[in-house]
């Protein structure tokens, strides 16, 4: 077991003793889950997957499908079209609240059931099968393997889904969804019944963490802007009416599901997922919340944690025949520009007359346009012996 | 004008034409504000302040005092004590909503008026003057200069403050605030009437951006954990019932005030502030929202933007007499550990037999404990010729 | 034209000029109604019907079906069983509000849509046709003629009935309704689409006014207790969220429908109905409200109006060979007992020694048990020359 | 003990065993009440008072002051002015709800605390003492004796009255109340602290029952229209969020108070009051509700109960030298007109040619204008031998 896996193992054992809560009871199939199941998975930037606990155990994705179907809708329709049908505000209400925006009938956000049904209804397709196929294909790309529907859970959800049917009819009464209510709701029930493991969820989360590129398969699944939008909405609304306190304590965009799954994203760092069926009063996995809180704290993954540097390039200095060369790699943002200029000023002070400095920006990866404009403008104000090579 | 200031200037002019909205009318003194006033300030990691527009114009801080008084309460009482009196959830309701948590009477969060009054009441002190003095001292430390109260605006707020008095009595009826309602409310009105400029707000925001250290004065104002908590709550609740959409579009912890101020924080990068009195329906400055949205987009400051590297140290390689030395500087997080190990493996593959490698971690700045544990464990599994020096 | 009809005619002309409001727009078929239509009908204790205006015009009964289907459910299931599924409290909310009692999911009362669907679902029957047949038969008995469904309006309501379907699914999710949501909702749409005239509604109202006996046909349609329960709920909840102000101003149990019908009941006096399609913001007929308010005022029909006597019998005095006989007819309630005793005491004072008085209660109609007990007890305390004959 | 008193005694003993509920705890002074206290009083049309149980026990009037202060406000300001400040709709919410009409800030009705404070603030006067004096004088006239304030309870209410102060500040923020919040609230606390007995409440209720005339003192306290308005609002809103079910089950305008008092009104028949400190979840006296429900049922006092006759005059027939004379006494309403005409038609059929009939309406008491118009019009259509003498 590698050291990081060992740390995950230790974190998992640290929460195994928590026995508060109970599996969800309102969907009959879920109520039968073994409450002792427990697993944890982490996927890093190079796609390395680490899993501990009951790693083979699959379970239905439930509400954790919501951010990914949102991603598909954003990719397919664009942000404005999606926002015309569903808001982006935390609702201050439970996930299954029957409350829509006055006047428009828009659900508060795509993470509550009403909003998820509205989002799901934006996925194009003829009939339940066609739409489900698109959603399954999309979520499989996020997971990096073919997912499939648990037909028994689907039947159980469909058989007891009056509250969601109520929401769908209400949405149609406001024109938020068009067409058949049955198709909308059955598609939604099927999307919720996709089987996943903690590993799958961690890979899916990592795909959001790394700007829409699945770090295991290397495939771009959605555009970077889509991944960012999804993470934004997960940050404000992903943990039901515990979202604010979760952001305070854990600080990671996350989404939980009623089957006991919990997926969190440390942007540019990790996708993380836990599975444990016992739920707290908010509908979040008790042990899942605890283990991810512990990881976030130990590894400093809180989104509002300060970092030594963000959007600052790495420097290497070479003394060559044509003078000193400062090579920039990594990312150049506005703060980075300022850092580069500060370094150059130090160099200038220490340089012998006549010496030249070349700043080589050709290996920069991620570069923000305005930062580069500012950097260029700085060079125009510098002594002529300073040269910027792009 | 330096290039970045020039960019700010351009951004400001880009929003000057927006003339929707109107100054707040419910506090008589604010209704008289010149609606054309416009200023913008940015403060970076080294404390450099850049200001454009009506930079001398001061205005009352209003609700932007809320995150800073929250910081003082957190510093003074600790997070648990604060959360016993006020929640951390977005409310889905307007800033002045009369709605408290069932059973406990806790306001939803410290950014709505009820929560801010409850927070303000946690600041110790005898009477209005004593408490106000502590708050003024605290906010002055954030701003890096002595702030003072606009007595005329204070009188205007106090004279028309029945809704806030109602909230305070309600809070006392639940035991959320103890002692005199008058002292609580008048202290709150005074804190709202502190005069600031856009520059002040940008410095105050930068102090939160850099973990509680004022980058201009170099003073630590609050602990890093306090700054993180405040930013977390600003992220979920800072822009009233536009907070979710703001996070989606702009992606920065922020707080707006009814006098037209708007402060945003790009953690580890910048404090930003704008001032323009015309407000939209949510009570946020129309031009302030527009200009900060434009900055965030141009400079890639969105919190959920992916970065090339986060919590990854910088490397420099020296070949010395005692072999190759890999020097780490900057921050070491979990992702960084993985990167270091990857680099070492590459080195190992390419190394001649008998060669040695020393990893020098002594210059690391911010180091996450578990990341270091993992790094050490990795070394134990490596060939003996790899040495970690801490 | 008889004098009372002339008065009704005058009252009707008095409101003809009111042209505020518009026909309901949310059911397409209703939007096409001629807004100028206007009729008024009154039915008194002996079943005499007086109608003025567009007396031949029929229209769909809509929400005015609610009190009558409630009557059928009460008759069929009993009050307790009905109250287990639907409350009796005014909701303070619009008729189509999506709000149910916390915990139980009971709708607030049977006059809002949710409550009416729950009530309708209590009518036994297999399938839509069977249930509709029972309801049609029941409402026809109230009207004293065979009513039938307007299939075009029914189709229009069913085609746009998503909000009501949402309510029905929600009710089923709480177990308030069992069985098929479709059957419940389609039955409800059919009951709303029954065609009536103002005359029909006045007869139906009169049947409630006279304790469940249709004064035109002479048939008992429901028990007196059922009629009283229905009138109670119409009093508190019949006029949507204008019910309280209607009771204040007009003082009659009433029910309005979205097609422009308005039925009011002066208990023991009259059934009244008006028809005019223009609705106010509460969904009540503008002219209907005005004309019934005017009638109530002119004829002193307000429920809280004091009367010279209530539950006091009429007296006639005969001097016979066997002494004076006081004959009681009409109703004997508690207040009546007191009145009888007062009269007897007067007689006793004025009577020659040896004279006898017989109180003949054999022609009393409505007699309250406890009042008779009290009367008997009074006789036991009187001189022996006073005799009560029952 | 007279027979009716004996019946009351029996009714009281029938509920003595109920021991659910507890005295109100939120006002410290009330929490100390002896939970076993029990009394009942009934006042009839001639002012006869019957009391059973702990008849000497006084208690603070609390919310039962609300309808009477409303009566004073209506008398003083008129209905329109009162309705501009407070609505007449049941709120569907608890008595102390913090909810006001959107836009206007009007409380839902004068029976919830917010509405009662707004109503109390309409009583003119300089300062708390002056206003209290007017209220005490007004309520004393309703009770027929001088009432006074329990200063200890007042102090207790004032000391813990933050929720009511919150309401008052909120009302002032909307302009629903003007002037000093302190005066408004302290006056309200004093009005609630008036000491009454069950007898007092029964007399006060009887004054409303008989159109504003105190049946004990014979004084007119308020106009008939005022009494009717107050009874209307008690009917829809008097029993907190149990008002609808109370109307269904008991059918009497009523008002309960948190000290355990309960007053009900059978219009034109009785004022009734009970006292027992144990409260149910709605804040109504457990035994008070039970005993008044039992009286209403036994004596047929339900407002929606049908009566043999309402607004029908009594007839006496005399054969005089100038022909037959039909004397009308009592009340002539629309239904009465119809009855008179029916009687005349019978007489006409049976009369010998040339005979004359005089209808003598000079002894009619309460006569509705339109009914008289209709009666006159009927006479114009009759044979000339029928004469109406007014």
Automatic annotation (TrEMBL), chains A, B, C, D:
Which Pfam families does the record match to this protein? Glutaminase
**What protein is this chain from?**
Glutaminase
Q: Name one GO molecular function term.
A: glutaminase activity
Similarity comment: family membership = Belongs to the glutaminase family.
User: Where is substrate annotated to bind?
Assistant: 63, 113, 157, 164, 188, 240, 258
User: Which UniProt keywords are present, listed alphabetically?
Assistant: Acetylation, Hydrolase
EC number of the protein: 3.5.1.2
Show the Gene3D superfamilies listed in the entry: DD-peptidase/beta-lactamase superfamily
Looking up SUPFAM superfamilies in the UniProt record yields: beta-lactamase/transpeptidase-like (SSF56601)
Q: Which PANTHER family match?
A: GLUTAMINASE
Coiled-coil portions: none
């Amino acid at each position: 077991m590698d050291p990081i896996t060992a740390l995950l193992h230790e974190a998992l054992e640290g929460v195994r003793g928590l026995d508060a809560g109970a599996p969800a009871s309102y969907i009959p199939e879920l109520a039968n889950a073994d409450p002792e199941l427990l697993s944890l998975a982490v996927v890093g930037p190079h796609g390395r997957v680490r899993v501990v606990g009951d790693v083979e155990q699959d379970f239905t994705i439930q509400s954790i499908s919501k951010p990914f179907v949102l991603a598909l809708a954003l990719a397919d329709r664009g942000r404005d079209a999606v926002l015309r049908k569903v808001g982006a505000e935390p609702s201050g209400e439970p996930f299954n609240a029957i409350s829509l925006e006055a006047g428009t009938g828009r659900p508060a956000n795509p993470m509550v059931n009403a909003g998820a049904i509205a989002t799901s209804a934006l996925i194009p397709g003829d009939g339940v099968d066609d739409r489900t196929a698109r959603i399954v294909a999309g979520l499989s790309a996020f997971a990096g393997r073919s997912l499939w529907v648990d037909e028994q859970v689907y039947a159980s959800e469909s058989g007891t889904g009056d509250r969601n049917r109520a929401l769908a009819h209400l949405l149609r009464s406001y024109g938020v969804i068009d067409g058949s209510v049955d198709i909308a709701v059955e598609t939604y029930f099927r999307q919720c019944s996709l089987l996943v493991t903690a590993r799958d969820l961690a890979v899916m989360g990592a795909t959001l963490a790394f700007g829409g590129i699945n770090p295991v398969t290397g495939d771009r699944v959605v555009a970077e802007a889509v991944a960012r939008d999804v993470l934004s909405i997960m940050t404000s609304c992903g943990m039901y009416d515990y979202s604010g306190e979760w952001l305070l304590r854990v600080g990671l965009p996350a989404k939980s599901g009623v089957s006991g799954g919990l997926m969190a994203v440390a942007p540019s760092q990790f996708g993380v997922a836990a599975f444990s069926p016992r739920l707290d009063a908010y509908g979040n996995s008790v042990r899942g919340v605890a283990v991810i809180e512990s990881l976030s704290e130990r590894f400093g993954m809180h989104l509002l944690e300060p970092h030594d540097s963000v959007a600052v390039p790495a420097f290497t200095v070479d003394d060559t025949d044509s003078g000193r060369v400062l090579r920039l790699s990594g990312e150049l943002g506005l703060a980075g520009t300022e850092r580069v200029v500060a370094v150059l000023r130090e160099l200038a002070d220490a340089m012998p007359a006549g010496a030249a400095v070349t700043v080589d920006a050709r290996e920069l990866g991620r570069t923000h346009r305005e930062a580069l404009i500012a950097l260029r403008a700085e060079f125009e104000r510098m002594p002529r012996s300073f040269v910027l090579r792009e």
